[in-house]
Design brief:
By secondary structure, the chain is of the alpha/beta class. The chain has 26 helices and 25 strands. Strands 18, 19, 20, 21, 22, 23, 24 and 25 form an eight-stranded mixed beta sheet that branches. Strands 1, 2, 3, 5, 6, 14 and 15 form a seven-stranded mixed beta sheet that branches. A hairpin with a 4-residue loop joins strand 8 (211-213) and strand 9. Helix 1 packs antiparallel against helix 13 and helix 9 (222-231) crosses helix 12 (331-344). The longest helix has 33 residues, at 410-442. The model has no long low-confidence stretch (mean pLDDT 89).
């Protein structure tokens, strides 16, 4: 199975290379896990303060003045928020600040204009108001990583320690970041990255970074910072390969992070697989409701002691993300759901060994498909492979449901399908080549129907047989010994090929199966392996055609006897037909067997053929065959003793097909012949001789020998009656 092994090697190589389309299939599989069994939503101390359409309608279009943001910070702090994380960046000065607004005024050089600018310039700057509001409050500002050096570097707030390999050597560094104003960063309690993930398949957010690196400095994500500030922790710990208790695999990887009381398992790149629950309104509270005095009790319940994320669900602000659940949610919801699962400990796990396991499964499935294909054939192999693939999918699903493990069963299954296809294609090509060989080698011996059946049903070649009604033929060349003596071995082979080839065609053209060639003889049968309801009639037609063929060969001197001046210049054959039950099937040994037929009906057919010469007819059939082919021209030869049979058997000479049977000449001859047979059975010798003379007068030349032999049997019977 070279093709199977090569395709398996290609699929293993593809999995190791992990191109985007392979990863896409895997990620879509994991999406469906979550879509079918999402994380159950359980209320957690996590809330989203939403800048929604209602808030925009109440307080105006975005961006709001920083004084409004400062008021929001003060209000959330007053309501008792454990931490306040902004899923946004305040990267530019507020254009609505009084001083900046005064710079835009242009009333000309008038005393009133100058006085107005002076008054506005004395008012507090909006950014300063916000910076002052951040002092001593649990506020985390966001930053977004950039792919160029157009931005700056955020101010690190968290102390990050690590055990094992330095995470800065593992993480891809960002060149710069979009950061908040320096005065805001200075007074904020924390700074966290809001960039969600690299570009995943279909734009779906599946993983989010927990840690960022500038190459020289480590930074926590917004989710991590919100947990750190809420717990009052000054720093966090990163574990990577090489740390105590962590295996050093030779490939540096981050394994986990610890923030206060919480441990986060991560991917090698420091990301968290987000275990989503459906987006719920219970997570959200509108900024409008936060400021509404009438809703202070509800706002306090939603905020007090909770980790609060400030973000926007307003479609016009374009912070909408796709999740594996098929939902479009605000980007801030992703951060909030990450914190929910960290608090609950409900993580998705994709261990380092999972990729190795999937490759081993791919290899094992592929090898199993190849082995079963060799041992059992395409259909059993497909069934076994299908059952194993379905079992693998079921196990992977059960593992996800019970342990939230992300194991990919699809790629191994697809790989086994590819291997099966390649191996089956190769097997098909080889099989077709073998079929062509079988057809070339055995087309002269088997009927085309049998060949087709053997090609499509190889199990028919097993040993065994079944009983069924058959018509059996034996054909023999009359006087073969003298013919063989006058020919050289090469000429004898040529003679047999010239004779037996067209005779075999006559048998096969009538759906007969050639059982074997026995020197100058042919054994054939009908109604197996394919059922042929008119098998007796077909056998009779084949016998008649064989007689015509021999006549045509003799007339054309096809054997070269006349041209060579041979003492024998024509060939005669004898054909015996019998119909009856026989056992047909493959017979022999496990290594060598023939599709053949055995039974008493076969023996009778052979004895009938041996009786052709004593009866004087080249085509003899049994009474059973004559009854099964009533439309043919038969003349009863009487009761003929057969070797091995205790009682004589009634035989019939076959003269022609349906057209002969309906001819006036035959009908007249048959009427006279029936009188002959009746007198012979009555032992009325005088009437029998008279009927015999009448038959001889009406018989064609090819029946002269038949009636001569009949006369000899009459004489024998007459002698026995005289001596009795």
């Amino acid at each position: 199975m070279v093709a199977g092994m090569l395709s398996l090697a290609v699929m293993i190589g593809l999995r190791l290379a992990n191109p985007p389309f392979v990863e896409a299939v895997r990620e879509l599989t994991f999406d469906y896990y979550q879509r079918l069994w999402p994380r159950e939503y359980v209320p957690m101390p996590v809330r989203i303060v939403d800048i929604d359409d209602a808030a925009l309608a109440e307080y105006g279009q975005w961006p709001w003045p920083r004084t409004r943001i400062a008021a929001l910070v003060n209000r959330l702090s007053e309501l008792g928020a454990a931490s306040i994380s902004f899923d946004m960046v305040f990267s530019e000065p507020d254009r609505t600040s009084p001083g900046r607004f005064a710079e835009t005024l242009d009333y000309g050089a008038t005393l009133d204009a100058s006085r107005m600018k002076a008054l506005l310039s004395r008012l507090p700057d909006n950014d300063t108001v916000l910076a002052d509001a951040l002092v001593d409050k649990p506020v985390i500002l966001g930053f977004a990583t950039l792919t160029d050096r157009s931005g700056g570097m955020p101010l690190a707030k968290a102390g990050i320690a690590y055990g094992g390999t330095d995470p800065k050597s593992i993480l891809a560094p960002f060149p710069s970041a979009l950061i908040s104003l320096p005065e805001l960063q200075m007074t904020a309690a924390g700074t966290g990255g809001i960039s969600l993930s690299r570009a995943d398949t279909g734009g779906v957010v599946r993983r989010i970074p927990m840690l960022f690196s500038s190459g020289s400095q480590l930074y926590a994500s917004l989710s991590v910072e919100s947990l750190r500030i809420a717990q009052g922790a000054s720093g966090l710990l990163v574990r990577s390969t090489g740390a105590s208790g962590e295996a050093d695999t030779g490939k540096p990887a981050i394994t986990a992070m610890r923030i206060g009381a919480f441990t986060i398992p991560t991917t090698a790149a420091g990301e968290l697989w987000v275990h989503y629950s459906p987006d719920r309104r219970e997570r959200y509270i509108s900024v409008k409701d936060v400021f509404d005095p009438a809703k202070t009790p509800e706002a306090r319940t939603a905020v007090e002691g909770n980790i609060v994320f400030v973000g926007t669900s307003a479609v016009g602000l374009f912070d909408i993300r796709a999740t594996p659940l098929g939902e479009l949610v605000p980007g801030v919801s992703v951060h909030a759901q990450a914190v929910e699962q960290i608090i609950s400990g409900d993580f998705l796990s994709r261990p380092d060994w999972s990729e190795g396991l999937e490759i081993l499964i791919t290899l094992a499935l592929g090898l199993l498909v190849i082995v079963t294909l060799l041992l059992t054939g395409p259909v059993p192999s497909a069934l076994i492979g299908g059952v194993l693939a379905i079992s693998g999918v079921a196990i992977a699903i059960a593992t996800f449901r019970q342990n939230a493990l992300l194991i990919d069963p699809i790629y191994p299954s697809l790989s086994s399908l590819v291997v099966y296809g390649a191996a089956t294609l190769q097997q098909y090509i080889v099989s077709e080549r073998e079929k062509r060989f079988v057809r070339r080698a055995f087309g002269q011996y088997l009927a085309p129907e049998l060949l087709s059946q053997l090609e499509s049903q190889p199990d028919a070649m097993r040993l065994g047989g079944d009983m069924r009604p058959l018509s059996i033929m034996f054909m023999d060349v009359r006087g073969f010994t003298p013919i063989s003596e006058m020919l050289s071995p090469q000429d004898l082979v040529q003679f047999l090929n010239t004779l037996l080839s067209p005779l075999s065609d006559a048998i096969q053209n009538e759906a007969g199966t050639i059982d074997k060639y026995i020197g100058d003889s042919i054994m054939a049968f009908w109604n197996a392996p394919l059922e042929t309801p008119d098998h007796a009639a077909r056998a009779c037609r084949a016998a008649l055609r064989m007689r015509e063929i021999v006549k045509e060969l003799n007339e054309a001197d096809a054997f070269g006897f006349k041209a060579g001046g041979k003492p024998i210049q024509s060939v005669q054959i004898g054909v015996g037909l019998n119909s009856g039950p026989a056992c047909v099937g493959n017979m022999g040994s496990n290594r060598r067997f023939n599709y053949s037929v055995v039974g008493d009906a076969v023996n009778v057919a052979a004895r009938i053929e041996s009786s052709c010469k004593p009866v004087g007819s080249d085509l003899l059939v049994s009474q059973e065959t004559a009854r099964a082919a009533p439309g043919f021209a038969f003349l009863e030869a009487g009761e003929i003793p057969l070797k091995g049979k205790s009682a004589p058997v009634v035989l019939y000479a076959l003269l022609g097909a349906e057209d002969v049977a309906r001819s006036p000449a035959f009908l007249a001859l048959r009427a006279r012949h029936e009188k002959l047979v009746a007198a012979w059975r009555r032992k009325d010798m005088a009437a029998a001789h008279g009927a015999l003379d009448a038959c001889r007068a009406a018989a064609p030349p090819d029946l002269i020998a038949f009636y001569e032999r009949f006369g000899e049997r009459l004489a024998t019977m007459e002698e026995s009656l005289r001596t009795a």
